[in-house]
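To close the section, here is one more complete example, presented without commentary so you can practise reading it yourself. The ligand is 2-aminohexanedioic acid.
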Amino acid sequence: DNHRIAEFLSRLGISEHNKGATSGTVWIDTKGGPNPSYSPADGKLIASVTLATGDDYAVITQKATEAFKIWRMIPAPKRGEIVRQIGNRLREFKEPLGSLVSYEMGKVYQEGLGEVQEMIDIADFAVGLSRQLYGFTMHSERERHRMYDQYHPLGVVGVISAFNFPVAVWAWNAMIAMVCGNVVIWKPSSKVMLSAIAVHKIIEKVLADNEVPEGVLNLIAGSSKHMGDNFLSDKRIPLISVTGSTRVGRHVSKTVGERLGRCILELGGNNAIIVSQYGNLNMALRASLFGAVATSGQRCTSTRRLLIHDCIFDKFRDKLIDAYKQLRIGHPLDPSTVVGPLVDKDAVRAFLDAQARIVEEGGKIVYGGQVLSGEEFASGCYVIPCIAEVENDFSIVQEETFAPILYLIKYKTLDEAIELHNAVPQGLSSAIFSRNIIETERFLSHEGSDCGIANVNIATNGAEIGGAFGGEKETGGGRESGSDAWKAYMRRQTNTINFSTELPLAQGIKFDA
Ligand code: UN1
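Output:
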Protein backbone atom coordinates (compact mmCIF):
# COMPACT_ATOMS: atom_id res chain seq x y z
CA ASP A 1 0.00 0.00 0.00
CA ASN A 2 2.73 2.46 0.97
CA HIS A 3 4.47 1.66 -2.27
CA ARG A 4 1.31 2.27 -4.30
CA ILE A 5 0.71 5.59 -2.57
CA ALA A 6 4.31 6.75 -3.09
CA GLU A 7 3.99 5.80 -6.73
CA PHE A 8 0.88 7.81 -7.52
CA LEU A 9 2.14 10.81 -5.57
CA SER A 10 5.35 10.82 -7.56
CA ARG A 11 3.54 10.36 -10.88
CA LEU A 12 1.42 13.39 -10.01
CA GLY A 13 4.43 15.48 -9.03
CA ILE A 14 3.35 15.81 -5.40
CA SER A 15 6.34 16.21 -3.10
CA GLU A 16 6.62 16.51 0.66
CA HIS A 17 6.12 20.29 0.53
CA ASN A 18 4.19 21.92 -2.28
CA LYS A 19 3.83 25.48 -3.43
CA GLY A 20 0.28 26.71 -3.04
CA ALA A 21 -0.33 28.86 -6.12
CA THR A 22 0.26 28.84 -9.84
CA SER A 23 -0.72 31.03 -12.76
CA GLY A 24 -0.49 28.08 -15.15
CA THR A 25 3.06 26.84 -15.48
CA VAL A 26 4.79 29.18 -13.04
CA TRP A 27 4.43 28.17 -9.40
CA ILE A 28 4.59 30.88 -6.81
CA ASP A 29 6.71 30.68 -3.66
CA THR A 30 3.75 31.06 -1.35
CA LYS A 31 4.62 32.26 2.14
CA GLY A 32 1.57 31.34 4.22
CA GLY A 33 1.73 28.63 6.87
CA PRO A 34 1.97 24.97 5.99
CA ASN A 35 -1.29 23.12 5.48
CA PRO A 36 -0.64 19.44 6.09
CA SER A 37 -3.00 16.99 4.45
CA TYR A 38 -3.77 13.82 6.38
CA SER A 39 -5.55 10.89 4.81
CA PRO A 40 -8.81 9.92 6.49
CA ALA A 41 -8.03 6.39 5.28
CA ASP A 42 -5.11 5.77 7.62
CA GLY A 43 -4.56 9.07 9.42
CA LYS A 44 -1.12 9.44 7.84
CA LEU A 45 0.38 12.69 6.63
CA ILE A 46 0.30 12.63 2.83
CA ALA A 47 2.17 15.87 2.12
CA SER A 48 1.80 19.52 2.87
CA VAL A 49 0.97 22.71 0.99
CA THR A 50 2.39 26.13 1.72
CA LEU A 51 -0.68 28.32 1.78
CA ALA A 52 -1.11 31.39 -0.35
CA THR A 53 -1.31 34.82 1.25
CA GLY A 54 -3.02 38.05 0.27
CA ASP A 55 0.13 39.06 -1.62
CA ASP A 56 0.03 35.89 -3.69
CA TYR A 57 -3.62 36.58 -4.34
CA ALA A 58 -2.71 40.02 -5.68
CA VAL A 59 -0.12 38.54 -8.05
CA ILE A 60 -2.45 35.86 -9.37
CA THR A 61 -5.38 38.20 -9.86
CA GLN A 62 -3.23 40.69 -11.70
CA LYS A 63 -1.99 37.95 -14.03
CA ALA A 64 -5.51 36.66 -14.58
CA THR A 65 -6.81 40.10 -15.44
CA GLU A 66 -4.06 40.58 -18.03
CA ALA A 67 -4.42 37.08 -19.43
CA PHE A 68 -8.11 37.62 -20.06
CA LYS A 69 -7.32 40.29 -22.64
CA ILE A 70 -5.33 37.76 -24.65
CA TRP A 71 -7.47 34.71 -24.05
CA ARG A 72 -10.73 36.35 -25.11
CA MET A 73 -9.19 37.07 -28.55
CA ILE A 74 -8.45 33.41 -29.24
CA PRO A 75 -11.33 31.95 -31.26
CA ALA A 76 -13.60 29.74 -29.20
CA PRO A 77 -12.91 26.53 -31.20
CA LYS A 78 -9.18 27.09 -30.65
CA ARG A 79 -9.82 27.45 -26.94
CA GLY A 80 -11.79 24.23 -27.28
CA GLU A 81 -8.73 22.56 -28.77
CA ILE A 82 -6.77 23.33 -25.58
CA VAL A 83 -9.61 21.89 -23.53
CA ARG A 84 -9.53 18.79 -25.73
CA GLN A 85 -5.88 18.29 -24.86
CA ILE A 86 -6.63 18.82 -21.17
CA GLY A 87 -9.26 16.08 -21.40
CA ASN A 88 -6.73 13.74 -23.01
CA ARG A 89 -4.14 14.53 -20.38
CA LEU A 90 -6.70 13.67 -17.70
CA ARG A 91 -7.36 10.38 -19.48
CA GLU A 92 -3.68 9.56 -19.15
CA PHE A 93 -3.68 10.39 -15.45
CA LYS A 94 -7.07 9.01 -14.52
CA GLU A 95 -5.70 6.21 -12.40
CA PRO A 96 -3.17 8.14 -10.26
CA LEU A 97 -5.44 11.17 -9.91
CA GLY A 98 -8.43 9.01 -8.99
CA SER A 99 -6.24 7.28 -6.40
CA LEU A 100 -5.11 10.56 -4.85
CA VAL A 101 -8.68 11.86 -4.66
CA SER A 102 -9.66 8.61 -2.99
CA TYR A 103 -6.76 8.70 -0.54
CA GLU A 104 -6.96 12.38 0.35
CA MET A 105 -10.75 12.69 0.57
CA GLY A 106 -11.72 9.15 1.53
CA LYS A 107 -14.16 8.25 -1.24
CA VAL A 108 -13.66 4.72 -2.53
CA TYR A 109 -11.34 4.11 -5.47
CA GLN A 110 -14.17 3.49 -7.96
CA GLU A 111 -15.67 6.84 -7.04
CA GLY A 112 -12.27 8.51 -7.31
CA LEU A 113 -12.02 7.19 -10.87
CA GLY A 114 -15.62 8.20 -11.53
CA GLU A 115 -14.83 11.72 -10.45
CA VAL A 116 -11.93 11.99 -12.89
CA GLN A 117 -14.20 10.52 -15.58
CA GLU A 118 -16.61 13.41 -14.96
CA MET A 119 -13.71 15.79 -15.65
CA ILE A 120 -12.96 14.02 -18.91
CA ASP A 121 -16.61 14.03 -19.91
CA ILE A 122 -17.08 17.73 -19.23
CA ALA A 123 -13.91 18.47 -21.19
CA ASP A 124 -15.40 16.60 -24.17
CA PHE A 125 -18.67 18.45 -23.71
CA ALA A 126 -16.85 21.79 -23.61
CA VAL A 127 -14.94 20.99 -26.79
CA GLY A 128 -18.22 20.54 -28.66
CA LEU A 129 -19.66 23.58 -26.98
CA SER A 130 -16.77 25.69 -28.21
CA ARG A 131 -18.41 25.59 -31.65
CA GLN A 132 -21.94 26.01 -30.32
CA LEU A 133 -22.06 29.17 -28.24
CA TYR A 134 -25.27 30.08 -29.99
CA GLY A 135 -27.46 33.11 -29.59
CA PHE A 136 -30.87 33.73 -31.17
CA THR A 137 -31.69 35.92 -34.11
CA MET A 138 -34.88 37.94 -33.94
CA HIS A 139 -37.06 39.67 -36.49
CA SER A 140 -37.06 43.39 -35.98
CA GLU A 141 -40.32 45.35 -35.98
CA ARG A 142 -38.49 47.93 -38.09
CA GLU A 143 -37.86 47.66 -41.81
CA ARG A 144 -34.31 46.79 -42.89
CA HIS A 145 -33.21 46.11 -39.36
CA ARG A 146 -31.61 43.01 -38.02
CA MET A 147 -31.53 41.81 -34.42
CA TYR A 148 -29.60 39.10 -32.71
CA ASP A 149 -28.04 38.26 -29.42
CA GLN A 150 -24.51 37.18 -28.87
CA TYR A 151 -22.55 35.91 -25.92
CA HIS A 152 -19.30 37.49 -24.86
CA PRO A 153 -16.83 36.26 -22.25
CA LEU A 154 -17.24 37.69 -18.75
CA GLY A 155 -13.66 37.92 -17.50
CA VAL A 156 -12.06 36.35 -14.46
CA VAL A 157 -14.19 33.57 -12.99
CA GLY A 158 -13.57 32.51 -9.38
CA VAL A 159 -14.23 28.87 -8.56
CA ILE A 160 -14.55 27.86 -4.92
CA SER A 161 -14.82 24.11 -4.59
CA ALA A 162 -15.82 21.84 -1.73
CA PHE A 163 -13.96 18.88 -0.25
CA ASN A 164 -16.36 16.21 -1.46
CA PHE A 165 -15.56 16.61 -5.17
CA PRO A 166 -11.97 17.79 -4.93
CA VAL A 167 -11.35 17.92 -8.67
CA ALA A 168 -14.58 17.51 -10.66
CA VAL A 169 -16.24 20.71 -9.45
CA TRP A 170 -13.34 22.67 -10.85
CA ALA A 171 -13.67 20.91 -14.20
CA TRP A 172 -17.43 21.52 -14.51
CA ASN A 173 -16.72 25.21 -14.08
CA ALA A 174 -13.30 25.67 -15.61
CA MET A 175 -13.75 23.68 -18.82
CA ILE A 176 -16.94 25.58 -19.65
CA ALA A 177 -15.59 28.95 -18.50
CA MET A 178 -12.48 28.47 -20.64
CA VAL A 179 -14.23 27.78 -23.92
CA CYS A 180 -16.46 30.75 -23.16
CA GLY A 181 -13.31 32.88 -23.20
CA ASN A 182 -12.91 33.43 -19.48
CA VAL A 183 -9.92 32.88 -17.26
CA VAL A 184 -10.26 30.99 -14.00
CA ILE A 185 -8.94 31.32 -10.47
CA TRP A 186 -9.53 28.17 -8.46
CA LYS A 187 -9.66 28.20 -4.70
CA PRO A 188 -9.95 24.60 -3.52
CA SER A 189 -11.17 23.39 -0.13
CA SER A 190 -8.38 23.41 2.46
CA LYS A 191 -9.16 19.74 3.19
CA VAL A 192 -8.13 18.49 -0.25
CA MET A 193 -5.53 20.86 -1.62
CA LEU A 194 -3.17 18.16 -2.85
CA SER A 195 -5.75 16.92 -5.32
CA ALA A 196 -6.06 20.44 -6.70
CA ILE A 197 -2.29 20.80 -6.98
CA ALA A 198 -2.11 17.46 -8.79
CA VAL A 199 -4.68 18.64 -11.35
CA HIS A 200 -2.58 21.69 -12.12
CA LYS A 201 0.60 19.60 -12.34
CA ILE A 202 -1.16 17.35 -14.85
CA ILE A 203 -2.43 20.13 -17.09
CA GLU A 204 0.59 22.39 -17.03
CA LYS A 205 2.19 20.49 -19.91
CA VAL A 206 -0.81 21.31 -22.12
CA LEU A 207 -0.58 24.96 -21.13
CA ALA A 208 3.15 25.02 -21.88
CA ASP A 209 2.91 23.08 -25.18
CA ASN A 210 0.27 25.48 -26.46
CA GLU A 211 1.85 28.62 -25.05
CA VAL A 212 -1.31 29.45 -23.17
CA PRO A 213 -0.61 32.77 -21.40
CA GLU A 214 0.12 32.68 -17.69
CA GLY A 215 -3.02 33.65 -15.83
CA VAL A 216 -5.59 31.71 -17.87
CA LEU A 217 -5.85 28.80 -15.43
CA ASN A 218 -4.83 29.75 -11.90
CA LEU A 219 -4.80 27.92 -8.63
CA ILE A 220 -4.64 29.63 -5.29
CA ALA A 221 -4.60 27.38 -2.25
CA GLY A 222 -5.23 29.71 0.64
CA SER A 223 -7.43 29.85 3.69
CA SER A 224 -10.53 32.01 3.59
CA LYS A 225 -9.25 33.78 6.68
CA HIS A 226 -6.35 35.25 4.76
CA MET A 227 -7.74 35.73 1.32
CA GLY A 228 -11.29 34.44 1.00
CA ASP A 229 -13.01 37.77 1.33
CA ASN A 230 -10.54 39.48 -0.98
CA PHE A 231 -11.74 37.13 -3.60
CA LEU A 232 -15.40 37.80 -2.93
CA SER A 233 -15.26 41.56 -2.73
CA ASP A 234 -12.88 41.95 -5.67
CA LYS A 235 -14.61 43.94 -8.41
CA ARG A 236 -12.28 42.47 -11.02
CA ILE A 237 -14.05 39.13 -10.63
CA PRO A 238 -17.47 39.33 -12.30
CA LEU A 239 -18.50 35.77 -11.45
CA ILE A 240 -17.89 33.50 -8.49
CA SER A 241 -19.04 29.90 -8.64
CA VAL A 242 -19.22 28.33 -5.22
CA THR A 243 -19.97 24.79 -4.13
CA GLY A 244 -20.42 24.32 -0.42
CA SER A 245 -22.78 24.55 2.52
CA THR A 246 -25.73 26.92 2.64
CA ARG A 247 -23.91 28.83 5.38
CA VAL A 248 -20.90 29.44 3.12
CA GLY A 249 -23.17 30.24 0.17
CA ARG A 250 -25.08 32.87 2.10
CA HIS A 251 -21.84 34.63 2.99
CA VAL A 252 -20.52 34.46 -0.58
CA SER A 253 -23.80 35.62 -2.05
CA LYS A 254 -24.03 38.55 0.36
CA THR A 255 -20.48 39.72 -0.24
CA VAL A 256 -20.57 39.29 -4.00
CA GLY A 257 -24.13 40.68 -4.15
CA GLU A 258 -23.04 43.78 -2.28
CA ARG A 259 -20.91 44.75 -5.28
CA LEU A 260 -23.55 43.43 -7.71
CA GLY A 261 -21.29 40.66 -8.92
CA ARG A 262 -22.71 37.37 -10.07
CA CYS A 263 -22.69 34.03 -8.29
CA ILE A 264 -23.39 30.47 -9.23
CA LEU A 265 -24.46 28.86 -5.96
CA GLU A 266 -24.36 25.08 -5.54
CA LEU A 267 -25.31 24.62 -1.91
CA GLY A 268 -26.81 21.99 0.32
CA GLY A 269 -29.35 19.36 -0.57
CA ASN A 270 -31.83 17.35 1.47
CA ASN A 271 -32.69 14.86 -1.20
CA ALA A 272 -35.46 12.33 -0.95
CA ILE A 273 -36.59 9.25 -2.82
CA ILE A 274 -40.29 8.45 -2.82
CA VAL A 275 -40.58 4.68 -2.70
CA SER A 276 -44.03 3.88 -4.01
CA GLN A 277 -45.83 0.57 -3.70
CA TYR A 278 -45.86 0.61 -7.52
CA GLY A 279 -42.08 0.75 -7.76
CA ASN A 280 -39.62 -2.02 -8.52
CA LEU A 281 -38.53 -2.47 -4.94
CA ASN A 282 -35.26 -4.22 -5.73
CA MET A 283 -34.22 -1.29 -7.85
CA ALA A 284 -35.44 1.14 -5.20
CA LEU A 285 -33.37 -0.70 -2.63
CA ARG A 286 -30.18 -0.56 -4.67
CA ALA A 287 -30.73 3.09 -5.50
CA SER A 288 -31.34 3.95 -1.86
CA LEU A 289 -28.12 2.23 -0.89
CA PHE A 290 -26.07 4.00 -3.54
CA GLY A 291 -27.82 7.27 -2.77
CA ALA A 292 -27.31 7.14 0.97
CA VAL A 293 -23.93 5.50 1.47
CA ALA A 294 -21.91 6.29 -1.66
CA THR A 295 -19.19 8.80 -0.79
CA SER A 296 -20.24 8.00 2.79
CA GLY A 297 -23.23 10.30 2.40
CA GLN A 298 -21.02 13.27 1.57
CA ARG A 299 -22.45 14.28 -1.78
CA CYS A 300 -24.73 17.25 -2.06
CA THR A 301 -26.92 14.82 -4.02
CA SER A 302 -26.80 12.05 -1.37
CA THR A 303 -30.15 10.53 -0.48
CA ARG A 304 -31.04 11.76 2.99
CA ARG A 305 -34.74 10.88 3.19
CA LEU A 306 -36.77 7.91 2.03
CA LEU A 307 -40.50 8.53 1.85
CA ILE A 308 -41.93 5.03 1.84
CA HIS A 309 -45.53 4.01 1.25
CA ASP A 310 -47.16 2.76 4.40
CA CYS A 311 -48.07 -0.66 2.97
CA ILE A 312 -44.45 -1.57 2.16
CA PHE A 313 -42.69 0.38 4.91
CA ASP A 314 -41.78 -2.45 7.28
CA LYS A 315 -40.71 -4.81 4.54
CA PHE A 316 -38.60 -2.19 2.81
CA ARG A 317 -36.95 -1.08 6.05
CA ASP A 318 -36.03 -4.65 6.94
CA LYS A 319 -34.54 -5.30 3.52
CA LEU A 320 -32.60 -2.08 3.74
CA ILE A 321 -31.16 -3.04 7.11
CA ASP A 322 -30.14 -6.43 5.70
CA ALA A 323 -28.39 -4.69 2.83
CA TYR A 324 -26.63 -2.25 5.19
CA LYS A 325 -25.29 -5.23 7.13
CA GLN A 326 -23.52 -6.46 3.99
CA LEU A 327 -21.72 -3.17 3.28
CA ARG A 328 -17.96 -3.60 3.22
CA ILE A 329 -16.51 -0.67 5.13
CA GLY A 330 -12.77 -0.14 4.85
CA HIS A 331 -9.76 1.46 3.25
CA PRO A 332 -10.95 3.46 0.25
CA LEU A 333 -8.13 2.19 -1.99
CA ASP A 334 -9.07 -1.44 -1.32
CA PRO A 335 -11.08 -2.42 -4.42
CA SER A 336 -13.54 -4.48 -2.37
CA THR A 337 -14.54 -1.52 -0.18
CA VAL A 338 -17.94 0.05 -0.77
CA VAL A 339 -17.94 2.55 2.09
CA GLY A 340 -14.83 4.53 2.93
CA PRO A 341 -14.17 6.86 5.86
CA LEU A 342 -15.67 10.29 6.44
CA VAL A 343 -13.43 13.16 5.40
CA ASP A 344 -12.20 13.97 8.92
CA LYS A 345 -13.01 13.78 12.61
CA ASP A 346 -15.17 16.91 12.48
CA ALA A 347 -17.43 15.05 10.11
CA VAL A 348 -17.57 12.12 12.52
CA ARG A 349 -18.55 14.50 15.30
CA ALA A 350 -21.34 15.96 13.18
CA PHE A 351 -22.53 12.40 12.43
CA LEU A 352 -22.73 11.61 16.16
CA ASP A 353 -24.28 14.94 17.13
CA ALA A 354 -27.00 14.48 14.54
CA GLN A 355 -27.89 11.11 16.03
CA ALA A 356 -28.16 12.60 19.50
CA ARG A 357 -30.58 15.17 18.12
CA ILE A 358 -32.60 12.49 16.30
CA VAL A 359 -33.14 10.66 19.58
CA GLU A 360 -33.81 13.89 21.48
CA GLU A 361 -36.54 14.81 19.04
CA GLY A 362 -38.20 11.40 19.40
CA GLY A 363 -36.70 9.54 16.43
CA LYS A 364 -35.43 6.00 16.50
CA ILE A 365 -32.04 4.79 15.25
CA VAL A 366 -32.86 1.44 13.64
CA TYR A 367 -29.41 0.60 12.34
CA GLY A 368 -25.75 1.61 12.66
CA GLY A 369 -24.42 4.96 13.73
CA GLN A 370 -21.30 3.74 15.53
CA VAL A 371 -17.70 4.84 15.03
CA LEU A 372 -15.49 1.88 14.15
CA SER A 373 -12.34 1.15 16.09
CA GLY A 374 -9.44 -1.24 15.67
CA GLU A 375 -6.22 -1.16 13.70
CA GLU A 376 -7.84 -0.93 10.28
CA PHE A 377 -9.92 2.04 11.43
CA ALA A 378 -7.22 3.85 13.42
CA SER A 379 -7.81 7.18 11.65
CA GLY A 380 -11.03 7.49 13.66
CA CYS A 381 -12.98 8.50 10.56
CA TYR A 382 -14.80 5.23 9.84
CA VAL A 383 -18.44 4.89 10.80
CA ILE A 384 -21.27 2.45 10.28
CA PRO A 385 -23.89 4.17 8.11
CA CYS A 386 -27.03 4.92 10.05
CA ILE A 387 -30.74 4.44 9.39
CA ALA A 388 -33.31 6.26 11.50
CA GLU A 389 -37.11 6.42 11.68
CA VAL A 390 -38.15 10.05 12.05
CA GLU A 391 -40.77 12.65 11.28
CA ASN A 392 -40.08 14.98 8.36
CA ASP A 393 -40.56 18.09 10.50
CA PHE A 394 -37.87 17.27 13.09
CA SER A 395 -35.40 20.16 13.05
CA ILE A 396 -32.50 17.76 12.46
CA VAL A 397 -34.28 16.27 9.43
CA GLN A 398 -34.73 19.74 8.00
CA GLU A 399 -30.96 20.24 7.98
CA GLU A 400 -28.32 18.74 5.75
CA THR A 401 -25.97 16.57 7.81
CA PHE A 402 -23.08 15.68 5.55
CA ALA A 403 -22.82 12.06 6.68
CA PRO A 404 -24.42 8.69 5.98
CA ILE A 405 -27.68 9.07 7.88
CA LEU A 406 -30.78 7.90 6.07
CA TYR A 407 -34.17 9.03 7.38
CA LEU A 408 -37.19 6.78 6.90
CA ILE A 409 -40.57 8.46 6.75
CA LYS A 410 -44.01 6.92 6.07
CA TYR A 411 -46.65 8.23 3.72
CA LYS A 412 -50.16 7.13 2.76
CA THR A 413 -51.06 9.06 -0.41
CA LEU A 414 -48.96 10.51 -3.22
CA ASP A 415 -50.24 13.99 -2.30
CA GLU A 416 -48.85 13.51 1.17
CA ALA A 417 -45.56 12.15 -0.19
CA ILE A 418 -45.06 15.16 -2.46
CA GLU A 419 -45.95 17.54 0.34
CA LEU A 420 -43.44 15.93 2.69
CA HIS A 421 -40.93 15.76 -0.11
CA ASN A 422 -41.02 19.51 -0.67
CA ALA A 423 -41.29 20.45 3.00
CA VAL A 424 -37.57 21.12 3.51
CA PRO A 425 -35.59 24.31 2.90
CA GLN A 426 -33.32 22.76 0.25
CA GLY A 427 -34.18 21.83 -3.34
CA LEU A 428 -31.37 20.02 -5.11
CA SER A 429 -32.23 16.48 -6.16
CA SER A 430 -35.19 14.15 -5.92
CA ALA A 431 -36.49 10.83 -7.15
CA ILE A 432 -39.50 8.57 -7.29
CA PHE A 433 -39.53 4.82 -7.74
CA SER A 434 -42.81 3.95 -9.36
CA ARG A 435 -44.08 2.30 -12.54
CA ASN A 436 -47.38 4.10 -12.32
CA ILE A 437 -47.36 6.82 -14.95
CA ILE A 438 -49.90 8.93 -13.09
CA GLU A 439 -47.54 9.05 -10.13
CA THR A 440 -44.33 9.63 -12.05
CA GLU A 441 -45.77 12.33 -14.27
CA ARG A 442 -47.27 14.13 -11.30
CA PHE A 443 -43.93 13.98 -9.55
CA LEU A 444 -42.26 15.62 -12.56
CA SER A 445 -44.98 18.21 -13.06
CA HIS A 446 -45.05 21.70 -11.58
CA GLU A 447 -47.17 20.43 -8.70
CA GLY A 448 -44.59 17.73 -8.02
CA SER A 449 -40.94 17.91 -6.97
CA ASP A 450 -39.64 21.42 -6.37
CA CYS A 451 -36.01 20.41 -6.96
CA GLY A 452 -33.53 21.30 -9.69
CA ILE A 453 -33.11 17.60 -10.43
CA ALA A 454 -36.02 15.14 -10.47
CA ASN A 455 -35.50 11.51 -11.44
CA VAL A 456 -37.72 8.53 -12.09
CA ASN A 457 -36.42 5.11 -11.11
CA ILE A 458 -32.91 6.49 -10.54
CA ALA A 459 -31.22 7.56 -7.30
CA THR A 460 -30.85 11.21 -6.32
CA ASN A 461 -27.10 11.20 -6.87
CA GLY A 462 -24.87 10.32 -9.79
CA ALA A 463 -26.13 12.95 -12.21
CA GLU A 464 -24.61 12.96 -15.70
CA ILE A 465 -22.57 16.00 -16.76
CA GLY A 466 -24.76 16.57 -19.85
CA GLY A 467 -27.61 18.03 -17.80
CA ALA A 468 -27.65 21.35 -15.98
CA PHE A 469 -26.67 20.65 -12.39
CA GLY A 470 -28.04 22.60 -9.45
CA GLY A 471 -31.09 23.26 -7.34
CA GLU A 472 -33.68 25.61 -5.96
CA LYS A 473 -34.50 27.27 -2.63
CA GLU A 474 -31.59 27.14 -0.19
CA THR A 475 -29.57 25.14 -2.71
CA GLY A 476 -28.97 28.53 -4.28
CA GLY A 477 -30.44 28.38 -7.79
CA GLY A 478 -27.16 28.01 -9.72
CA ARG A 479 -26.65 25.66 -12.65
CA GLU A 480 -23.35 24.18 -13.77
CA SER A 481 -22.16 21.60 -16.23
CA GLY A 482 -24.25 20.66 -19.27
CA SER A 483 -27.33 21.84 -21.15
CA ASP A 484 -27.17 25.64 -21.48
CA ALA A 485 -25.52 26.23 -18.09
CA TRP A 486 -22.67 27.85 -20.06
CA LYS A 487 -24.77 30.98 -20.46
CA ALA A 488 -24.08 31.92 -16.84
CA TYR A 489 -20.39 32.20 -17.74
CA MET A 490 -20.97 34.78 -20.46
CA ARG A 491 -22.50 38.18 -20.81
CA ARG A 492 -25.36 38.51 -23.26
CA GLN A 493 -25.52 41.37 -25.71
CA THR A 494 -28.53 42.29 -27.82
CA ASN A 495 -27.59 43.89 -31.13
CA THR A 496 -29.83 45.82 -33.49
CA ILE A 497 -28.47 46.90 -36.85
CA ASN A 498 -30.10 49.36 -39.19
CA PHE A 499 -29.24 48.86 -42.85
CA SER A 500 -31.82 51.28 -44.21
CA THR A 501 -31.35 54.94 -45.01
CA GLU A 502 -34.09 55.97 -42.55
CA LEU A 503 -34.11 56.12 -38.79
CA PRO A 504 -37.43 54.54 -37.82
CA LEU A 505 -38.04 54.34 -34.06
CA ALA A 506 -39.39 51.35 -32.24
CA GLN A 507 -42.93 51.46 -30.86
CA GLY A 508 -43.86 53.62 -33.86
CA ILE A 509 -42.76 56.77 -32.09
CA LYS A 510 -42.53 59.91 -34.22
CA PHE A 511 -39.77 62.17 -33.00
CA ASP A 512 -39.17 64.87 -35.54
CA ALA A 513 -36.96 67.54 -34.13
C1 UN1 B 1 -21.68 17.28 -5.25
O1 UN1 B 1 -21.90 16.46 -4.37
O2 UN1 B 1 -21.19 18.41 -4.96
O3 UN1 B 1 -24.71 13.92 -9.09
C2 UN1 B 1 -21.87 17.03 -6.69
C3 UN1 B 1 -23.73 13.56 -8.43
C4 UN1 B 1 -22.37 13.99 -8.91
C5 UN1 B 1 -22.14 15.39 -8.48
C6 UN1 B 1 -22.25 15.62 -7.02
N1 UN1 B 1 -22.34 13.89 -10.34
O4 UN1 B 1 -23.81 12.86 -7.43
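Once you have examined the C-alpha coordinates, check your reading against these statements. The pocket of 2-aminohexanedioic acid is lined by residues 164-165, 243, 299-301, 461-463 (CB under 6 Å). The two ends are 84 Å apart (CA to CA).
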